[in-house]
Design a protein that fits this description.
Strand content: under 5%
Distance between the termini: 26 Å
Number of strands: 0
Order of helices and strands: HHHHH
Length: 124
């Protein structure tokens, strides 16, 4: 049976690459946190909006780190190289800011990251 550690483990660390299933479940967890942040902003009255922006901003930066880590570790699993995973992730983030091309690159990378199997690794 799957445990929480098997599905969501190593989300905050860089100790091992992520397989397809772990990448998918981590992405779902990050999405749920984002929905929670949007709900907080929608429910906060106007008088407390400045405090909410600070709170959501801090949590949003943590969420950005989690997304970066999740994608880089998945690319690390596909390429077999940690540095390539980091470089490709930075490139994907930059490509996302290019109008008209960014959305296509983001969709294509999401499909690739979800369906391409990882590289075979030899355990010591």
């Amino acid at each position: 049976m799957f445990s929480f550690e098997n599905l969501f483990g190593s989300l905050f660390t860089w100790d091992e690459p992520n397989g397809r299933l772990r990448y998918f479940f981590n992405h779902i967890l990050i999405f749920i946190v984002m929905l929670f942040l949007i709900a907080i902003l929608a429910a906060i009255p106007q008088s407390l909006r400045a405090i909410a922006y600070v709170f959501v901003g801090v949590i949003g930066l943590c969420n950005l780190y989690l997304i970066f880590t999740n994608v880089a570790k998945r690319i690390w699993d596909i390429t077999g190289d940690k540095k390539q995973g980091i470089y490709w992730t930075i490139g994907l983030i930059i490509a996302g800011f290019i109008p008209a091309i960014g959305q296509i690159v983001d969709l294509a990378s999401l499909i690739i990251l979800l369906f391409v199997p990882g590289a075979e690794r030899v355990e010591d």
